[in-house]
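Batch manifest, entry 17 of 40.
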Amino acid sequence: MTVIVGLIHEDQVHIGGDSAGVAGCKMTIRKDPKTFLNGPYTMGFCGSFRMGQLLHHAFKAPTPKGDLDRFMTTKFVNKLRACLKTAGWARKESEQEQGGTFLVGIYGRLFIVYSDYQVAEPADGYAAVGCGNEFALGALHATETANLGPRERLTVALTAASHHGTDVSPPFTYATAPSHSKLLQIEAAQYATAKVPAPREEEPADA
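Output type: structure tokens
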């Protein structure tokens, strides 16, 4: 079930997803979204809704520091593993931990986190995961040079997957991460606020 699509446009990562919840031959349209923001990150998951709920509400995503590739493959993944393990969702087979698959965008870069916790960064600047990913990838490739905005491209890809796939369904949801420059402005403002002491109230003069 599911298709999650993402792309980079002008220093921002945009992610879209469908709303199908599939169990065997039964489909339920879920109100809880597969795409969302978590701090400075935008995320979209496929597979287990329980994993998605943990990503959305329990995972305290760390703020990136230093080299982003190193950070994502070490500190980010380690924090994710700890979250899933604490919540009782992470699996272990042949002494290897297994999580789930999802897209994550941060600082204008798009990553895929796979179930073995490897972190991939597609060179095309777009990605799709889930059972409808082939249809979505074809649509993203076909619209790469089209005069379409990022939301429109995501919608075309999601619609293609819904039209040709049995386990993908609207309504579609979207989440966009703040640009890297915007996040830097926010961090600078927070730092400046922390450095400025709060004004002291003047004590009333003695009568």
